Each structure stands twice: as structure tokens, then as C-alpha cells.
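Q: I'm writing a short methods note and want an example of a predicted protein-small molecule complex. Could you take the sequence and the SMILES for adenosine-5'-triphosphate and return the bound structure as C-alpha cells? Please keep the output block clean; save any remarks for afterwards.
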Amino acid sequence: MTPTVALHGLTKSYGNVRAVDGLDLTIRPGEVVALLGPNGAGKSTTIDMLLGLARPDSGSALLFGMAPAAAIAAGRVGALLQSGGLLPDLTVREIVELSAALYAGHRAVPDVLARAGLTDLAGRRVAKLSGGQQQRVRFAMALVADPELIVLDEPTTGLDVEARRSFWAAMREESGHGRTVLFATHYLEEADAFADRIVFVRAGRVVADGTAAQIKAQVSGRTIRATLPGADPGALAGLPGVDEVETRGDAVLLTCRDSDAALRALITTTPAYDIEVTARGLEDAFVALTMEAVK
Ligand SMILES: Nc1ncnc2c1ncn2[C@@H]1O[C@H](COP(=O)(O)OP(=O)(O)OP(=O)(O)O)[C@@H](O)[C@H]1O
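A: Understood, no commentary inside the block.
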């Protein structure tokens, strides 16, 4: 099956900043993928190349097996970008109608306005909208072509908690209809809650790719906490499955790649007690993956 998105070896530099550095990514039809990464990781630059808005220095971007511009002209892609320009003098309805007119097989404008929560604002001029309301207009413009692929660059920036919730509810409906969704975010909760798959980008490269659970497992392992007066950190570091040892007073903290092996050894070879084993969360994974960039 032809992938919906196929990025191969994408590279882009601005001056001496390598914004995207040999990035590969394949997305299959119907996947909901989060492009997650810290500020400056290269998410927006990747999306710009994926949409044909920026030219890669090397590598290729194909949507549905064709050049991005052709896929977009065919109405197969809807995009919500961070700072998409809106014509301030048009009303909400007019701007969505204008977007619809670009595509032969577009959706009915009233339906799209309803989906984006804009029905009550349809007659208002764009200049009079709040930032969050303008974001909803961008969302409506992304939906109106009836696209198979929706690309969203930090779609909930500037939205309050309630608006964010209703945005994701609307998106969930859209993906439920089989659309492929790619969204960039630095909100872990959004990636965890909404994406089937998280692609973690750092310094222009993919450093982890999988479900939230797989990413947690890939980077985090588990932590064992125990009370062990007079602990010998060197001996603990030598236990099977242990990566790092920290001592705080009588407490020891073992970061483990194999907590089962470490726990077995800890119990049988030391008098440790009050033992707790915890799985580290996506938050820890995010920090760990981000910190590696600094090394
Ligand atoms: N037009 C540009 N000119 C110069 N440098 C740029 C330009 N666009 C991006 N960069 C640089 O490229 C790197 C990647 O930026 P990009 O906007 O793609 O990251 P991002 O992951 O989307 O970040 P954020 O989460 O902050 O939006 C950054 O170091 C940024 O400063």
C-alpha cells in the first residue's frame, strides 16, 4: 500500500543551523501520529517540507506517492499551520467558503463550521476574533477540502483548557472517519492521549518512534527505591540490570534497564527494605530523550 507520508533523508539547514538532519518517516493510512519534540527540534521545518512549503537541501517528501504540491492541489491534504495568515476583513463564513471554493469535492461549509465550533461566530469578521477563535478558523480551513491527511502544527497553542478539549474531540471524530492525522506538539499529554504513535524528534532527527508505551519502555526502564543504611554505591552499580545508582541518606535509587534482575539481586545480596519499583512515565522519557541532545 502506498504510504500516506513518506519522508526519506530530509535535511534542511538555515545558515549553520541544521534544522532537520536526515529525517525518515513513513505514515500509513489511518494512523494518528504525534511529532513530539522540544522547541527548535525541527518539527515545523519538517512539516513545511512535507507540505512543499520549504525545499529540502536533500532527501525527499512524498504524500500519497506524489509531490506535496500535487497532493494538496488534489484536495487530499488539509493543514493548520502555526501562523497561517487569515484575511482580517472577511467573516468566518466567507473565509471558509473561499477555502472551499478551491476544491471541487469540498465539504458543506455549514458542516465544517459546526465541526470547528464556529456556527455562532459565522458572521463575525476575522479581525474581531480572539486568538483561540482564529485557531478554530484555521482548523475549519484545514477540514473543508475533505482531506485524507490532516497536518496540524501545534494546533492547540493559545487555546484554553476547554477549547483544547473540544478541539481534540472534533479531531477524534475526524480520525474516526479514517483520516490520517499528523500533529506537531510539545505537549506530552496531547501526544499520549491522542496519538496512536509518537515520533520523537530532537535536533532534526527521529530519536524514538512507537506507541507511548513503547517509548516509555525504550528510554525509561524502571526505578527501584529502597532503604539501605550504609549502602555501597559501587557494589550496587555492579548488580545485574542496574544502570545508575543514587544515594540520599539511607535511601538508594537504582535506575534499571532490567528491574527484575536488579530486584532479585538486591533482595538476595543486601539487607535493603521498604522496596518500591516504579515505571517511569512519558514525562521522564521526554526529559531523558531531550537531555541526550545536550550530551
Ligand atoms: N526561517 C528560518 N531561518 C533561520 N532559522 C530557522 C528558520 N526556521 C527554523 N529555524 C531554526 O531551525 C531550528 C528548527 O526550528 P523549527 O521551527 O523547525 O523547530 P520546532 O521543533 O518546530 O520548534 P517549536 O516547537 O519551537 O516550534 C531552530 O533552531 C530554528 O531556530
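A: Remarks, as requested: The chain has eleven helices and 13 strands. The chain has two domains: 5-216, 220-279.
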